[in-house]
Amino acid sequence: MEITHLHQSRAVPLGFGLAVLAPGVGLGFGGPALAAWLVGLIERSPLPVPGLLEVIAGLPWAWSIPIGVLLGVVGGVLLAMTIVHEALSLTVATDHLEYRQEGREGWIERAEVASIHPDGRDVVVLDERGRVRARLNAEALESASLARTLREFDYPWRQEDPFEGDYQRWMDGRPGFSAAEHALIGRWQEARRKPRERTEAEAALREADLAVRYRDGRVQVRRVGGAGRGADSRPAAS
């Protein structure tokens, strides 16, 4: 079975890690001199000089440089690990998709995929009923490569949401939604920036036949099976 793995370029976490290491090295060389200048400045004021500042000012380079490098290395490694952890890793196969992101893993059968489209930094997978099967932050992936790979594996890639015209602005209490539906949408809004909680909220919305997105600073919602054009009525983008 043919498989393609899409993931963030290794140069990205490496570059950010080195960007944090550099200030650490600089701090090791210039930290004592900067601390000494601050000590002199504070001594001319009525404020007491912090003891830690005096300790840093008295550090010889033999100590300050290794400490600065160590802090830079630790900070750089932690930042690189965070970037790798948050980035989407996507496996595209002829019969399924696999994804891993922020500690979450998922599997989507090809038969469940009616369309895939970008939505800002996200990529959205819709099922045959127009429900959101998955919403993944694909910011770490090269968009042209993602679209090309999905087309090569005969996945229905769209340049925009096939139900674009069905969305309406949501406000808590707006007529047309039940109290339970308002609660589900509000829960999604609160969890929008928390991947695990958002995934759970979107699963509940899917069961309620609602699709929600954030556009132009507003929450927008549509009912599944709306009057707009569905995934099967629009040809795939070339």
Descriptive overview:
Mean pLDDT is 86; it is low at 227-238. The chain has a four-stranded antiparallel β-sheet, with helices on one face. Strands 5-6-7 form a three-stranded antiparallel β-sheet. A three-stranded antiparallel β-sheet has the order 8-10-9. Helix 1 (11-43) crosses helix 3 and helix 5 packs antiparallel against helix 6. The protein has two domains: 3-86, no CATH class; 89-233, PH-domain like (Roll), CATH 2.30.29. The protein is built from six helices and ten strands, in the order βαααββββββαβααββ. The chain is elongated, with a radius of gyration of 25 Å. The protein has helices at 11-43, 51-57, 61-86, 143-152, 179-190, 195-207, and strands spanning 3-6, 89-93, 96-101, 104-109, 115-119, 122-126, 132-137, 168-169, 210-215, 218-223. It is of the alpha+beta class and 238 residues long.
